[in-house]
Structure prediction request, 509 residues.
Amino acid sequence: MMTDDVTIPIDVGPVEIAQERGTPASAQREVVFDIRDLEASYGTTTAVSGVNLEIYHNLITAMIGPSGCGKSTFIRCLNRMNDLIPTAKIDGEVLFHGQDIYGDGVDPVEVRRRIGMVFQRANPFPKSIYDNVAWGPRVLGMKRDLDERVERALTQAALWNEVKDRMKKSALSLSGGQQQRLCIARAIAIEPEVLLLDEPASALDPIATAAIEELMHDLKRDYTLVIVTHNMQQAARVADMTAFFSLEVGDGKRTGVLVEYDSTDKLFTNPGDKRTEDYVTGRFG
Amino acid sequence: MRTSFQDELNLLETTLHEEGALVLRALRGALNALEQRDHELADEVIAFDDDVDQRYISIEEGIQSLLARQTPVASDLRLVLAILHVNLHLERMADYCVTIAKLSKLVPDVEPSPRFIEGFEEMGSRCEEMIRIALDAFANRNLEAAESLVALDELIDRANRRVVERILELGEAERMREYGLRMVLVSRALERIGDHAVDIGEQVAYLLTAEFREFTDASHPQPA
Prediction:
């Protein structure tokens, strides 16, 4: 991985092989995230609690579940995005290659460099296409071969051929689907290891959605992807592993919980939990 | 709750059971036509196959539409796939009933030993029992009942072997030999109906366990 002159406070720990928690044999892969007893709350409201799961290298892991089940909160815990919300509180551990990203002395900015994020609504800067992609590397001091880096990121994001002749044009002139791919290019320009995608295609039409899904398939060769989607079929199409979150009601409070985590194939053909079965077959609610 | 989807799925399963009831009627008709040498009844059985085919096609079309529009998953997906297979097995059974009815019209006018017809009656009754058990196991989601079909099929296989032995005892007369040849095919048709009933049992097991497995493996039989 090209790091230029950026210091990395996170040690990449020894490679772990997943063998526990019912991980299917086909997914005996390097563990990127090991999440233990995670609980996230905003003020007095617990958004999600008791989450234990491992996320594996070079796989697409999808989070599905009804609105308010905490899946977006969960994914935002993976790169400390919730730090930016004053009332947010995180308990438990999020081990990234064995090291807790909430541990003492860990720089959240560096966490977010290693673990990039793409949001529901494409949010390009009101700048040129080139500047959008070059912005991250510039800020992080990755200035060497910047043009090549921008081209590489746009190529990986399957956007290069569409924009190579108008790099100086405003990013806002692109279509919604192109803007989202630009945001993916912007995220991968700083060479993260993980890409978190929070409902990346929910605002896109079916063709642009298909392009993003195709892109995700290509990107998993180089990155570990975690996607939140309310579209179950999208999870079924793209994800290798799927986690189903649901809401548990107790003491008049509703808390998101992880119900089931397994290979996507298993979850959509023979789920182990009745709640998963009810949700994926549309009997929920 | 996807109400319309569940309604469609229920309708498909109901039609499947209708088809099963029609197959039972066709089988009884074919056996009676054979035993009583009733050519008129045989013709009715042959014509009756259109009713079975109508259900068969309606289920095929229903599943095509459901897969295209509803993307069933989990137990719904398994149910759709099981219905698809069971539909085909029932349609094949009905075809075998037609075969028996056609053969019953072709037999020469000979008087074989009554044991002969008794043998078919035994096989036919066992086939009927197996079809009922297979359909009930499907309707009640009963794995144990589905698995019991293997032992019942073994009884049909034995009866089939006995029929062949009796055919060899029919003698050298040309008409008896022709009769014997026709009856080998009848016996074979009944034996195959039993096999299809076991296959329906396997679909019940798949529906309930999500595992694809054959109850018995003809190419690697277990030692008796």
User: Anything to note?
Assistant: The radius of gyration of chain B is 19 Å. DSSP finds seven helices and no strands in chain B.
